[in-house]
Write a structure and sequence with these properties.
335 residues; binds uracil; globular; 7 helices; binds the ligand O=P(O)(O)O[C@@H]1C[C@H](O)[C@@H](CO)O1; 5-stranded mixed beta barrel; alpha/beta
Amino acid sequence: MTSCDCDYILPNNKEWEPHYNNCSLVWRRYLGAACPKNGDGSLRLLNENLTKLDSDVIYHLGFDTFHYDLSAMFGDVKFVCMGGTKQRMKEFAKHMAKELDVKNYQLTNLTKHSHRYAMYKVGPVLSVNHGIGIPSMTILLQEILKLLYYAKAKDPIIFRIGTSGGLKIPPGSVVISSWGLNGTLEKTYNIPVLGTLRKIPSIFDKRLSQELQSLISDADGFETLIGGTMAADDFYRGQARLDGPFCDYTEQDKIAFLHKLADMGVRNIEMEATAFAAYTNEAGVRAADVCVTLLDRLKGDQVKPDKATLLQWQERPMKVVGRYIAKYYGNNSRA
Ligand SMILES: O=P(O)(O)O[C@@H]1C[C@H](O)[C@@H](CO)O1
Ligand SMILES: O=c1cc[nH]c(=O)[nH]1
């Protein structure tokens, strides 16, 4: 293991060990699993069953490996950016066309046969929505990982640009997640597999977060922080709201819980961070979760800014990630 300046807290999970790859944190299973990337930066998925398929149907994206030349279609992808809504991801595709000065692109929904998600491609950028919550996001993410694998895309980076509720920070601030915290306050994504709960560490790439934060200055007019992100499995009780159809705790309980989260270093609450960190790490792919906060949860539960403000705030994560891509891609294409 090479040394690294990463100072993450290691999870109490004996099934996994941290592995540093070019200073990026990658998690690998004890007993045998190698670092998942190939020498050329393409993904090496550790599922041998895939090699036995005549054709792999990537069902929710509407592709398969027999009828589509995924390498020709997506081999040049360097960045995948995902977020909840179709509209936001279409806007992000347009934003990236401007940032990268891409002239010949079409805003065609590439997944239209499946009617599930919307995916756009602009030069080296794939922009795709994932819907709400971990199950919807992880289906999309796993199929994107397979797509990148079959396409032999080199060293792809995956971003999530989202919205969230903030804790003790001004609404409109942007939070870049350093780790995800689940609903029982562990820094893991917990998923039952074959009847047993699997816990996968949910830690983000520290260097990538810092690089993103460094691209924003006071002149941008919003605060950008690095901090913990709670990923809840629900928008209402799961996020300690008082305004859902059910509420079986008091306002004092809610406030005490939110203070407890803030004391642990949580800066915002959304619904995907844990699984997003876990699965990108497992695939050996660098990733960052960049979310704007729509309200301070210590001051309320309802999302009240008007439509224009909400749309304007959602452009902030686009700005952060767009700047990173323009800088990285510009440097790379000049090299
Ligand atoms: O990317 P989005 O804005 O969908 O992220 C958050 C978390 C949930 O998906 C959703 C809840 O309103 O917003
Ligand atoms: O409070 C909020 C706002 C947006 N998204 C969430 O998940 N929670």
